[in-house]
Amino acid sequence: MLSSSEQGNTINTTGRGGSTTNLPAYAVFIPIPQAKRKHFSPMDVALKSPATSFFQLNKKPDTRSFIRFPCHRLAVPSTRFTPMAAVSTTQTVGLSETFTRLKKQGKVAFIPYITAGDPDLSTTAEALKVLDSCGSDIIELGAPYSDPLADGPVIQAAATRSLARGTNFNAIISMLKEVVPQLSCPLALFSYYNPILKRGVKKFMYTVKEVGVHGLVVPDVPLEETELLRKEAAENGIELVLLTTPTTPTARMKAIVEAAEGFVYLVSSVGVTGARTSVSDRVKTLLQDIKKASTKPVAVGFGISTPEHVKQVAGWGADGVIVGSAMVKLLAEAKSPEEGLKELESFTKSLKAALE
Amino acid sequence: MATVPTTGTTFCGSALRKPYVCAKFPFRFHPFSSYSSKPTAVSCTIADRALRMDNGSSNSTLLQRPDSFGRFGKFGGKYVPETLMHALSELESAFHSLASDHDFQKELNAILKDYVGRESPLYFAERLTEHYKRPNGEGPHIYLKREDLNHTGAHKINNAVGQALLAKRLGKNRIIAETGAGQHGVATATVCARFGLQCVIYMGAQDMERQALNVFRMRLLGAEVRAVHAGTATLKDATSEAIRDWVTNVETTHYILGSVAGPHPYPMMVREFHAVIGKETRKQALEKWGGKPDVLVACVGGGSNAMGLFHEFVDDRDVRMIGVEAAGFGLDSGKHAATLTKGEVGVLHGAMSYLLQDEDGQIIEPHSISAGLDYPGVGPEHSYLKDSGRAEYYNVTDEEALEAFKRLSRLEGIIPALETSHAVAYLEQLCPTLPNGTKVVLNCSGRGDKDVHTAIKHLQI
């Protein structure tokens, strides 16, 4: 029988068509009739809580578009059997646990990144679900920032557009509150340091934990300055991912890897985010060096944008592959948000297939 | 020649373990007192200052500026992507090793003298002083430190020259820089031409429009000027873009940051390259009136000219230090750049410091009529000096600055930069409060030729 608790949106739907997943012992495969399946429709949210709905943020009412994506089309591909995982009252497992599980299965994690609020938060909400249903193992969500030092033109532009639409932290949190319970994979937030400081590190960690975020990546805080972040993250059960790069000397890399939680983020190249034509084969050596130093999982990011890249990096021994700008670009250049989500779905599937 | 300081000596002297005795120069050494064959030892002077600090500066909290982590109290640090961390520590080591490098010091001093035109005069502003005399004939004596007379017309060249030499030492032939008004860009393009280095300057697209003349100058000097359209297309975005370029090209490129902001070691390095301003001032004050300045006044954008003047005197508690920021349209208008007055502590461009931000921690676009003060952050050392009470910070509006621009032109025949005009404007509020004979030294950080187009729009002459 299904064990469920009706505390708001605590039932997770998993849409991993085809792939076997280790489900908890109490989970039972029960096909849920259409009528009882929990849909997330933007209209529902807008009607239920107009005062706090993140949709209210849209400052141009004439361009407001409620995405009418029937969830079942994406979350439950009709050709596949959809297991309904009945989960406990807590939501998804964290980053490290996810990697542990995947390792047992001999799999490499697929980790997409998108910027919150581009083209708008309702599309982001849908995109998160698309990414989840297409088999992402962890999803990175970027909070837009006015001065993103580590980001190239694609993500910079996404951030600028998002901020221009009025996206702010509270709106992102509202959206996550609704969406995270519907995701089967854990979410890691990607944020620069100043917005965290402004909120107060303690309060920030508590707030994101409340909505079910599992991990955090802060690209402009070097190891020396992470003490406060690590302390508050630990107290709130948030895994603080740390980055190492091709310019990081070995001794420093070891210290970083030692302190990292969730996974180690290996930046593939000397530069900022943005698709590149090829992935440097320095990554292979760097992966080997890190693995000599630690058994923690390593995910490679920056520049990876094609199934070929994904396959190559996985072949070199990465435990996870992160794809960001390519995803953001898709959504940005699509003729409409709906088109963008469709393209996102097929792109994600092609990348995920490269890991099969 | 004086022996070198012990290893681990930083230019600010905080890491010295044992007192360094400058055997040949028991008195305070004046690096620019003569340009004869006597080798000038800037390193000796720096160690000398460290000696004084070790021997009982009354305020121990001001000793570590910065500490080994690059912090001034809680401010400063290195908040940059991991890719840059190694380059920053390389830069720091290189800079420290130059303290003992006589060839470097010699080369730097020669360029400062023959190319930049140092030492800059300390000029007694007779008519300005007269202007502030009270009815009973009492009033302060106002001196102008003439950084406007340097090559390229501002203090910016001091740092550009030092860093260009440093870059060459590091074997980096590509230079990048950010610029707001264009003065730092022009200074960087100038030194790159002088040293044969490839030069790329990032400038906000908006700024390029308002400072078209400086854009032309940079291109004429052989630099590539790249427009930055991201964000608000102004100085803060140009800085972010320069940092991104550096992240990408760190192995071949040196980033000449234009002010005492940014990640450690930049605030310290840029300060040290400008510290010659204060050092000369001490010597010149001694020569002119046999004492020290009583009050130092300088405009503050990022804070480089102010730190250059102040640094020498930070440990002289009887010297008052005043920084003047831009209040734009007024503090309550929301259109200003008065970071130290209206900002909050946060992290921008690699340093923890006061900055202008909104409730979400997004950096907001400041406003000032002077592009050089139009920066939403401020150097971390200024944040520290403010919080520790060592320096005072005020602000003046665009209007007041324009009045001062006219006033100095009319009273002394010196057209100041609009940035400098802010410091000059503050004299209106300051001078009535000063006892008779107070010696005020104002850093005349730049000349105003570059600002005539802006002035024409606003002033009815």
Keywords:
heterodimer, A: 356 residues, alpha/beta, 8-stranded parallel β-barrel, 14 helices, 8 strands, disordered N terminus, B: 461 residues, 6-stranded mixed sheet, 4-stranded parallel sheet
How would you characterize the overall build of this protein?
The complex is a heterodimer of chains A (356) and B (461). Chain A has 356 residues and is α/β, with parallel strands linked by helices. Chain A is 40% helix and 10% strand. Chain A has an eight-stranded parallel beta barrel, surrounded by nine helices. In chain A, helix 4 (121-133) runs parallel beside helix 6. Chain A is globular. Chain A starts with 41 loop residues before the first helix and ends with a helix. In chain A, 52% of the residues are buried. Chain B is α/β, with parallel strands linked by helices and 461 residues long. Chain B has helices spanning 42-54, 85-97, 102-116, 126-131, 156-169, 183-195, 205-210, 212-220, 235-249, 266-274, 276-289, 304-310, 339-342, 380-387, 398-412, 418-430, 452-458; strands spanning 71-72, 75-76, 122-124, 141-145, 174-179, 198-204, 224-228, 253-255, 295-299, 320-328, 344-348, 351-355, 391-397, 439-443. In chain B, helix 12 links the parallel strand 9 and strand 10. Chain B is globular and about 65 Å long. Chain B starts with 41 loop residues before the first helix and ends with a helix. The interface between A and B is large, with 42 and 40 residues.
> Main β-sheet of chain A: number of strands, strand sense, barrel status?
8 strands, parallel, barrel
The percentage of residues in β strands of chain B lies in 5-15%
The helix content of chain A, as a percent range, equals 25-40%
Mean pLDDT of chain B: 87
Query: What does the overall shape of chain B look like?
Result: globular
**β content of chain A, as a range?**
5-15%
Would you list the SSEs of chain A in sequence order as H and E? Answer: HHHEHEHHEHHEHEHEHEHEHH
CA-CA gap between termini of chain A:
32 Å
Structural class of chain B: alpha/beta
Question: How is the main sheet of chain B built?
Answer: 6 strands, mixed
Assembly of the depicted chains: heterodimer
Give the strand order of the largest sheet of chain B, numbering strands 1, 2, ... along the chain: 3-4-14-9-10-13
Number of helices of chain B: 17
